[in-house]
Amino acid sequence: MIEARHLTKTFRDKKRGEIYAANDISFRVQPGQIYGLLGANGAGKTTTLRLLATLLKPTSGSAVIAGFDVAAEPEKVRAHVGFLAASTALYGRLTAREMITYFGQLNGLAGAEIKLRIQRLADALDMHEFLDRRCEKFSTGMKQKTSIARTLIHDPAVMIFDEPTLGLDVMTARAIVRFVRECRDRGKTVIYSTHVMGEVEKLCDTIGIIHDGRLLAEGTLAELRARYGEQDLEEVFVKAVGGEGKK
Amino acid sequence: MNGSHIATVYLKELKDSLRDRRTLLSTIVIPTLVMPLLFFAFGSVMLKMDQQARAETPTVMIIAGEDSPAVLARLRADAKIRIVPTTADWRQRISDKKIRAAVEIPASFEAGLGRGAAPSVTIYNYSGEAKSRLGVEQLERIFRELREATVEARLGERGVPLALTKPFETKRENVAPAEKVGGNLIGGFIPYIIIILCFTGAMYPAMDLTAGEKERGTMETLLCSPVARVNIVLGKFLMVLTASIATMVLSLVSMSVTFVAGGSYFAAKAAAAKGAAAGAATGAMISMIDPVGVIGVFAMVLPVAVFFSAVIFTVALFAKSYKEAQSYVAPMIFVVLLPAMIGMAPGIELSGRLALVPILNLSLVCKEMLSGVWHWHYIALIFGSSCVYAAAALALAVKMFSRESVIFRA
């Protein structure tokens, strides 16, 4: 389970002073659910997810993930989280197997257990063909599969996806969406950020609209449509953030 | 801190670095090859230049002196110089290096000699040029001989014994031990090379493991793992240190092999060319280096290697890309070079204050140890202060690694 309570993160900028990248964000995601964080570029999606993954420390507020507080026990939080972002790359000079093994070791798994899990993941993701080749020569699809296997090696209860389909072709993006759904079906708690309306409509049980570091609206797709009186999610989004003119 | 996590990170970085061509080149290939190449290239060129200069008979022009036929004949008869016909543009010819020197014999020189008051002879040369110098040396020798012969003749005429002009002799004798001589000659150079290689060896992996990872996007992946930041830093740092020490050891081994093998090679070659002195001196110099001193140098360099690795690691951590890291780290070489060069300068000796100056203290103490001098209180002070600097740098690296503003610099 994920529970964010008044999560706030400020950065100091020389020209603009104090910036609220995440401002008083609270929400809750239950196991077996996908929470979609919808927002434009720079809205604060990445900051919020990095706070949940303990890559950043909150300025104020807190979050509890799988029963651990992000500020008090960041290592335990990370042990129960699988984090996949467009910016989490692979080590080019390692093979896919070495890459996944490394993260298995970092998660404290024994050698035999890692071998077994890699075998299973490679079966499920159809990776055997390139498992022992170096990641630098991979296609985007192969890279994505390896990254997914990397996030799953320690079988985390919580999955955090930060724009995982960014820059991918349609087929690879669809494979990712399918994989996210599988995570939910296996009872994992999933949070998913994107600026693609279609993905949110297809995937998410609950949608949070984030803008300028604030969570402006939250609800199921049906609830949001009803509240703003629009069928099209894009129109809902524009209304929620206060019209097109406002940035 | 968790030993097994540190080991996991370290072993992965080791494997990764061994597959990186850039790191391999800077930590293994260059330090192994640079000394032999430098030594043989430099040695061969020097030997060749020297032989060429010696083989050549310097060409000399004589200006005036028509009324001093005996002196002219003496000059023409000398086998070690070659007299060429005088031309009006002799000055230009010396500058153009067409001739090596010119000698001007003043009017009525011989007549003056007979009267006991001859005017001075002028030798024109191109100062600072080796071949011109050889010509001048020969001319000076001829006139010295002439002067001595004249003195002898005059004393003979007056019936004065020759010993009167030389009431006593002076001679030099060396009391410094053999190692001290060798240590002073090349002992200043060895620490200089070690310090630079120690630095460059740490440079590439330190940039690759920090800024390089940020640039490639693997830093964020690594930070998602449940391993505590401090273990990641220490694992990575150990890899950088390994590279630094590997570079240093490889270069030391390659250097000793080169000196021993190269020294005897050039000694034989120079002996064959009847110029044995230079070659033999090199060979003798090597045997004068104290092997215990080399071990001492190695021990003293260790904390400095830690210091370098941690400092470069911290600086490179700020950069967002490998290129940016290079532009921060490359100027640091000059900061390292300066104290290392000062240490190489003759006449600078260790003192309580200099013993606390990082890098310079290492350079000075290594010079001493290589020449067999062991000032234990300085050695302890330098080792201690180096360890303190190293620990401070490492603590800074750990601190910077856990700062969001450094790791996620926008």
Structural summary, described in words:
The complex is a heterodimer of chains A (247) and B (410). With 247 residues, chain A is an alpha/beta fold. Helices cover 37% and strands 27% of the residues of chain A. Chain A contains 9 helices and 10 strands. In chain A, α3 (96-106) crosses α4 (111-125), α3 runs parallel beside α5 (140-152) and α8 crosses α9 (233-240). Chain A is globular. With 410 residues, chain B is mainly alpha-helical. Chain B folds into 2 domains: 3-38 and 178-407, no CATH class; 58-165, 3-Layer(aba) Sandwich (abc type-2 transporter like fold), CATH 3.40.1710. Chain B contains 17 helices and 4 strands. Chain B has helices spanning 3-18, 21-55, 69-77, 90-95, 109-115, 130-158, 178-186, 189-216, 218-223, 229-272, 276-287, 291-318, 322-329, 332-344, 360-370, 376-401, 404-407, and strands spanning 59-63, 82-84, 101-104, 122-125. A 4-stranded mixed sheet of chain B has the order 2-1-3-4. In chain B, α10 crosses α16 (376-401) and α14 runs parallel beside α15. The two termini of chain B are 29 Å apart.
Question: Notable features of this structure?
Answer:
heterodimer; A: 247 residues; alpha/beta; Rossmann fold; 2 domains; six-stranded mixed β-sheet; four-stranded antiparallel β-sheet; 9 helices; 37% helix; B: 410 residues; mainly alpha; abc type-2 transporter like fold; four-stranded mixed β-sheet; 17 helices
